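To whoever is on call:

I kicked off a structure prediction for a single chain this morning and the downstream step that reads the tokens threw a length-mismatch warning. I double-checked the sequence; it's 449 residues and nothing unusual in it as far as I can see. Pasting both halves so you can look.
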Amino acid sequence: MSVDLGAYFNQFLQNISLGEPQISRMNSAAEAISRFLVQQYGVPSANVFVQGSYANNTVVEPVDGGEYDIDLVAVCVGPNVSSDKALDELETAFRSTALFSDRVTRKQPCVRLEYAHDHVGSFHVDVVPVRWSGQATPPLEAPRREDGWHGTAPAEYTQWCRNQGPLYIRTVMAMKRWRDEQQPVRNAVKSIVLQVLVSQYMPQTGDDASRMAETFKVLHSDLSRLRVPPVVPNPVLPSENLAKRWTAESFNNFVVELKEAVEWATTIQNTTDIMEAADACRELLGNDFPVLSPKDVRLELLDYSHAQTPAQMGWLEAYDSRYQISIKAVVQRGKRGQTRRPLLHDGELLLQGHNLHFKADLVAPNHVDVWWQVANTGGHARSVNELRGEIFKGKNLQGKLIAEDENWESTAYTGSHLIRSLLVRENRVLAVSPWFQVNIYAKGQPFRR
């Protein structure tokens, strides 16, 4: 690695770790459900235990109001009970008590109990009724509606995950956040499949960025040779193919997303610029990955008196409170533009080369024309004669006119720059939005006045 991202990854992993009050909420729900199941089925407390990412120490906070959960296994089913009956009896038991009756949702492999949303996202508990298999491997059997019983070893898988060590845990957490941030990846591969693939391809490298980058590269190198999903054996139950339900279409979509991830990973490994490296990590892992702030690079909003005035357009400023306008912005993410994230006024520091989409929100009792204005500031833009200040109609990135309440821009010059929109009717400016400040850093171009 050309730059050291160790502190950035430590902060990132802290940012995505599920904390309080969610952990206490999960523990409280699991304890209440476990007590109920022990009493309902008359089984030892050891027969009800946690499985999944929470037990495996790989749980991450959900993205954008998504879901977080905890999975419970209850060894409570007799040997001659069908899979459907086992799930139906568990569902009936939960519906019979006021404590859980309003929370029950039927699922194919489990019964789900849904809890109220909080500021992190929605929360649920999945409960799987299992039975002893009568053999050493697999020790248990789990039901699936209309599909019978299937061997499972949840406690053994949890122990296997923990045995992989802290580097594996850190890499899985990062890769799970990549999966959650990139919507096509989320739909293309199951979390457990991704976790096992990571164990097969992850190098034992201490540096988080290098380890993640190499995992992406080797994964793509091997999987891109295939047209159908590989067999992914359960590491504690080799007879089970975890990729059994992985369709060829989803697999190939996963390979496409890996290819883009490799491009960002290559940037991370090769750049000597800490901002470029952190920005590439953010493209992969989302806004929880820290980047430098405008203050860190000493950006300032400088003089923009060069901006064109309405009078220079031949317009009269005649503001009317019935007319209002404001603008919102998003940053287009991904080399194919498949993901966008909101951009706040005077917010994060953006690297050059990002595409920004601005949208005007307006209130107007009569027809008006929407105009846009950009005012660049700072020594970088001045040095290349790009101190823009003109008033213009909205355009796309190719410079062609589009819907007048929209406008696209690309980030290019180090500095704090401004954009606003104006409502004009019959050569009168009826409303102007506040200036929206965009902070930009161009590689190799420190801020200068």
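Update from on-call: the warning came from a stale cache, not from the record. Cleared it. Sanity check on the structure: Residues 75 and 275 are 51 Å apart (CA to CA).
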